[in-house]
Sequence to fold (312 residues):
Amino acid sequence: MNFQKLTPVPQKKELLDLAFRKARLKGVQKKFVGNWLQKIRYKENLKLDIVKDTLVTRLMKVLQEFPNTMDLNDFYVELIKLTLDYVELKKSFGALDWAIKQIGKVHRVHIVKVNEEKEGAKVKKITLQYYGRIASILKQINPQLKYLEQSRKTLRKFPAIKELFTVCLYGFPNVGKTTILNKLTGTKAKVAAYSFTTKSINAGYMKLNDTKVQVLDVPGTLARKDKMNDIELQAELVLNEVANVVVYIFDLSGASGYSIKNQEQLLQNLGKKRKVFPFVNKQDITDESLLKEFTVKHYTLEEIKAEVEKLM
Ligand SMILES: Nc1nc2c(ncn2[C@@H]2O[C@H](COP(=O)(O)OP(=O)(O)OP(=O)(O)O)[C@@H](O)[C@H]2O)c(=O)[nH]1
Ligand SMILES: [Mg+2]
Fold:
């Protein structure tokens, strides 16, 4: 699923401006034949059609583009539930559906009116009434259009996760997860000298044994289950739903600001559900004595790659 490509959800004003402008232009451009009353009727019929078609097409496009949770894998369904109001989202789709049907109804009613009206001057009034009804339908779904656009902006930040063998880089903020991702996969994700640089999940790919392996860099977590923010919850979700292997990154240098004890605790919290390979980063700025005293069995990146190859 490619959430990045979702087009912005058009809002009430934009939709009305577009539909009415198109109708006006076509009404002026097109030559109509017949007597005076017929010409007016044709012209107003055309305007009514254009407004309906423009709006219905746009609203349908929103419905078609948004992901259907039925087609998504568990990871994305969970992520949607964590980051969006799922009920509100469903309601918004319902509201758009309702609007599409309403527009169709109002269109049919006014077409009949236009074709039955005998006085030319009144035909134009019917079009104006129609515009009013259409505007009021859109006004009613405006909160939902807003919610969908807000949701799209959230969805756009979802990682594009593929169904491949997956290595997950995990550890406290600022320990160097993104740096390792870039090293392993040659991606250029943002690295910075302060915590919480990574605000969503970065993905990169490397080849092992001629097979593409997905490497995910998940945002630093403080591991307080009760107080986790959306991003931290995303990290948990990746660990539970997607990761085949975890590379747990230590920073013993003190630069990241987390004690070695806390880092060991977070490693233990990972449990034994999946294979975890500890890696000690920032060795260039770490006291040699600390490295010597460190008792957790750890691996070099080359060793980790070799271990992963065995597990694939
Ligand atoms: N000296 C040294 N600095 C490193 C090393 N690896 C990473 N850094 C620095 O540590 C800082 C944090 O690195 P990131 O890769 O952004 O860390 P992160 O774990 O992704 O951080 P968050 O996304 O905030 O959780 C940056 O300033 C890096 O340049 C290393 O091996 N040696
Ligand atoms: Mg990072």
